[in-house]
Design goal:
The protein is α/β, with parallel strands linked by helices. It has a single domain, classed as Aldolase class I (TIM Barrel, Alpha-Beta Barrel), CATH 3.20.20. Helices cover 34% and strands 18% of the residues. An 8-stranded parallel beta sheet has the order 1-8-7-6-5-4-3-2. The chain is globular and about 50 Å long.
Length: 228
């Protein structure tokens, strides 16, 4: 089943709780949470307190925490306690990938690995059975609003073959430059979970309570056309 995961990196942080409520009410499935540390990537965003605040606000949808931080292990328990559902991390940010995978699971969260556009996939040969999510970056991490990098579709096809060949149940997610014009092509490459930041939140019409209905409906309509 396809799932749409708007990235709150592109939302209006002055009214974040309402933004998340509205986008979920409009048909989104997952809240994508981009965590940047101004070290692993050249930007600084949000931490566990914002995740906790969304849960206290009443958000019950899955929260998909993408950690672009190094080192990564220290912050994992904090996000788990704050209410994360998924915690995904970059293998380059961990000294011991198996240990980090285990730490996320020990803290009660689903676990995923994230691959930058030029990061090889070999690590999946040893880790895929342990994962709930594989996230492919279709832009270089650090900033929202970037253009989709087409060669990532080839990586998606390779990962889909690996997942299916092994009979694994993990989701295949993509993040970066995804919108109504290309989501169908991305789905046909084997992706089932779609992060969309600018494509969703740039559709803002502040006078319309249901301002995200149109763009979520556009994404769903394109996914319905995808060839399985």
């Amino acid at each position: 089943m396809y799932q749409i995961a708007p990235s709150i990196l592109s939302a209006n942080f002055a009214r974040l709780g309402e933004e998340v409520d509205d986008v979920i009410a409009s048909g989104a499935d997952i809240v994508h949470f981009d965590v940047m540390d101004n070290h692993y990537v050249p930007n600084l965003t949000i931490g566990p307190l914002v995740c906790e605040a969304l849960r206290k606000h009443g958000v019950t949808a899955a929260i998909d925490v993408h950690l672009m931080v190094k080192p990564v292990d220290r912050i994992i328990p904090d996000f788990a306690k704050a209410g994360a559902t998924y915690i995904t991390f970059h293998p380059e940010a961990s000294e011991h990938i198996d240990r980090t995978i285990g730490l996320i699971k020990e803290n009660g969260c689903k676990v995923g690995l994230v691959f930058n556009p030029s990061t090889p996939l070999e690590i999946l040969e040893y880790t895929l059975p342990k994962l709930d999510m594989v996230l492919l970056m279709s832009v270089n991490p650090g900033f929202g609003g970037q253009k989709f990098i087409p060669h990532v579709l080839d990586k998606a096809r390779k990962v889909r073959k690996m997942i299916d060949a092994g009979g694994h149940t993990c989701r295949l997610e993509i993040d970066g430059g995804v919108g109504p014009t290309n989501i169908r092509e991305v789905a046909e490459a084997g992706v089932d979970t779609f992060v969309a930041g600018s494509a969703v939140f740039s559709k803002r019409n502040m006078q319309d309570k249901n301002r995200y209905n149109t763009v979520i409906a556009e994404l769903r309509a394109e996914l319905a056309k995808a060839k399985k």
